[in-house]
Design goal:
Number of domains: 3
Number of strands: 19
Radius of gyration: 64 Å
Shape: rod-shaped
Helix content: 40-55%
Number of helices: 16
Strand order of the largest sheet: 2-1-5-4-3-11
Structural class: alpha+beta
CATH superfamily of the largest domain: PAS domain
Length: 662
């Protein structure tokens, strides 16, 4: 079974990238539910801590206020005077106090003037009038009598009250009592008692007591910052005055909607018969928990560790903030779902983008390589692989580009090799055809002459036959020598034997060797030499072959009685330029690309002559091949220019010895 690369890559991407991303997203979103729940819980817990400290701070502010009032000079002077009298008149003062205590419930306003309309009482009443949530302020002397009060108290003698006894006996400790319900004020209040001391006297000379309604230091709705669906409760253990054994909760209800900063209304419920052991053992900073789809934060309300006052004893009270999970997490759940959907969409888009990128950058290029390989396999070696794509410049090349280049290089080599093979086959065919004609003719002639000489006794006839046989044998030798000249030597040192050659000398050799053919054709060889004679470093024999072949070709294609020109000149760059010009008809355009190929002698390869210099006759096609071969050995070049007025071959070779050894 064959599985495509595209299928494998898509499957691999799905396993390696898509599946982990989806799983990770699910873990993040679903696991984030727990994180968000913990975040909500910690947020509610932090709010509970903040609110407890705000409540404690407000209560401490009230304690500071009453402490400042209790240390007013008029109060200290009055308490000091009474304390001094008590040392000598204690019994008398106690009798008077009992008499007033007996009449206290029925005392008229005039009789109460000394207690309720005194300057000290006016001072205490001004504190209460300054904040209506301060229910009562009392100052009692060292005998337990009411020195002054903001309003009439239940009893005149306070020495039988636990708060007075505690304040007088515990030194300078401020005692804050548990929350209690004040029926006269119809409010839940908290009392605190402050011992009053004279300067530099450890013993208290009096006690200041204040009753403050909870609404004074409970946060307003705007300050509280919670939704209406949330609530808080205050818990405290049993042991209330009158031996109450139940615990109470103070639950926030919706305040006046028209006043966003109005204080929350409090409702009294008996929630728990007592504070559970678990709640009673909560230590600072507290805890939070999830219970029945609610977030509950519980903290001790009054903490000695965070108080800014010294010598304060707080009651055991707990603050509990509660919020339903549905109301606090619905927004987060929606956000989580949106994140999940957005994440899935992003992952799918990225996956599709990755598939498209892979398809364009890898798969399509591989497909193009396969298609080109199929074309090449069919025999078309001109086909080339194109693996480029739009982002190649941006992202650079890769192994697929390297593969395409290697395939193209391989195809070029195959194409070149096939051309070489085709050329070799053509050369072989040409050689066989030419050899069958060029070599067979002189050989047949020699064999025929030998047979004729064997049968003839005519000396003159035999002499002519021998002369003809010698000419034919010489022609065979020339053909064989020309073929051997194209065979590469074993080393470059054996190819060239460079030596300084005079142009005059070489030109005379050419003129002498070509003279018989020029005479036969009644032609003239013009040799042009530069004014300043110079020498050239070259292989003498090969330079002669170059010039003889070019001049012989010029003789062949120049009409009888015409002129062949041989020109020597010096070019820039220390090069010798040799030009051979004929007066022939020019080289046909179809033959021009092939004239330097071995055994190429024209469109019809058999249209040649066994003669040496017949007009417009073609040889075996070895002359120009030999010329180019020898010119290349000299690190030169050969070119030609042809027209209907004639053809000029130009050979350029270096004049001086090359810097490397030849």
């Amino acid at each position: 079974m064959q599985i495509s690369i595209r299928t494998k890559l898509v499957g691999l991407m799905a396993i390696v990238t898509l599946l982990p991303l989806v799983v990770s997203l699910a873990v993040i979103v679903l696991g984030g539910q727990s994180f968000r729940t913990e975040t909500v819980g910690r947020g509610v817990f932090a709010q509970a801590q903040t609110e407890s400290r705000v409540m404690q701070t407000r209560l401490e502010d009230d304690i500071r206020l009453i402490r400042v009032v209790a240390t007013e000079s008029m109060i200290l002077d009055a308490l000091a005077k009474i304390d001094q009298q008590a040392k000598t008149q204690r019994a008398t003062l106690e009798r008077e106090a009992k008499a007033i205590e007996a009449q206290w419930p029925t005392l008229t306003t005039a009789a109460l003037k000394a207690y309720l309309n005194s300057p000290i009482a006016e001072l205490l009443r001004s504190v209460r009038q300054g904040d209506s949530l301060i229910s009562e302020v009392i100052v009692a002397d060292s005998l337990g009598r009411v020195l002054a009060a903001s309003n009439k108290t239940t009893d005149f003698i306070q020495s039988d009250e636990e708060w007075w006894q505690t304040a007088m006996s515990n030194g300078g400790t401020v005692t804050v009592y548990p929350i209690a319900y004040d029926r006269s004020a119809d409010a839940w209040t908290i009392d605190f008692v402050i011992p009053i001391h004279l300067p530099n006297q450890p013993k208290a000379v009096g006690v200041a007591k204040a009753s403050v309604q909870l609404e004074r230091w409970l946060p307003s709705r705007g300050q509280f910052g919670f939704q209406d669906s949330g609530w808080y409760r205050l818990y405290q253990p049993g042991g209330q005055p009158q031996g109450a054994a139940t615990s109470h909760s103070f639950q926030m209800e919706s305040p006046d909607e028209s006043d966003p900063h109005s204080a929350p209304r409090l409702s009294h419920r008996t929630i728990l018969p007592e504070v559970s052991d678990e709640l009673a053992t909560i230590t600072p900073p507290g805890r939070w928990l999830i219970e029945e789809e609610r977030v509950i934060a519980q903290v001790p309300l009054f903490q000695t560790s965070v108080t800014q006052l010294s010598n304060v004893k707080f009651p055991q009270v707990y603050l509990e903030l509660t919020f339903p999970m549905t109301s606090t997490q619905v927004g987060l759940d929606t956000t989580g779902q949106m994140i999940l959907m957005a994440g899935l969409v992003a992952i799918v888009l990225l996956f599709i983008g990755g598939i498209l990128l892979i398809d364009r950058s890898i798969l399509r290029r591989i497909c193009r390589i396969r298609q080109s390989a199929e074309v090449i396999a069919s025999g078309d070696l001109k086909e080339r692989v194109d693996v480029s794509w739009r982002l190649t410049r941006l992202l650079g090349t890769d192994e697929i580009d390297d593969l395409g280049r290697e395939i193209n290089h391989m195809v070029r080599q195959l194409h070149s090799g096939r051309e070489d093979v085709e050329q070799a086959n053509a050369l072989k065919e040409n050689f066989l055809r030419i050899a069958g004609h060029e070599l067979r003719t002189p050989v047949s002639y020699i064999v025929g002459m030998a047979t004729l000489m064997k049968e003839s006794d005519d000396i003159e006839r035999i002499r002519k036959a021998v002369d003809t046989m010698g000419f034919k044998a010489s022609r065979l030798d020339e053909i064989i020598q020309a073929m051997f000249k194209l065979i590469p030597e074993e080393s470059l040192d054996e190819r060239l034997h460079l030596q300084p050659i005079s142009l005059d000398t070489i030109s005379e050799v050419i003129r002498s060797n070509m003279d018989p053919w020029l005479t036969r054709r009644e032609q003239t060889l013009e040799i042009e030499m530069p004014e300043n004679r110079f020498e050239v470093y070259a292989d003498r024999a090969k330079l002669v072959d170059i010039l003889e072949n070019l001049v012989m070709n010029a003789i062949k294609f120049t009409p009888n009685g015409g002129t062949v020109c041989l020109r020597f000149s010096k070019q820039l760059g220390q090069n010798l330029a040799i030009k051979v010009t004929d007066q022939g008809p020019g080289i046909p355009s179809e033959d021009q690309p092939h004239i330097f190929k071995p055994f190429y002698s024209g469109a019809d390869i058999l249209r040649h002559s066994t003669g040496k210099s017949g007009f417009n006759k073609r040889g075996m096609g070895l002359g120009l091949a030999i010329v180019k071969h020898f010119v290349m050995l000299h690190h030169g070049k050969i070119d030609f220019h042809t027209s209907e007025a004639g053809t000029t071959f130009t050979v350029t070779i270096p004049l001086v010895r090359p810097s490397y050894d030849l």
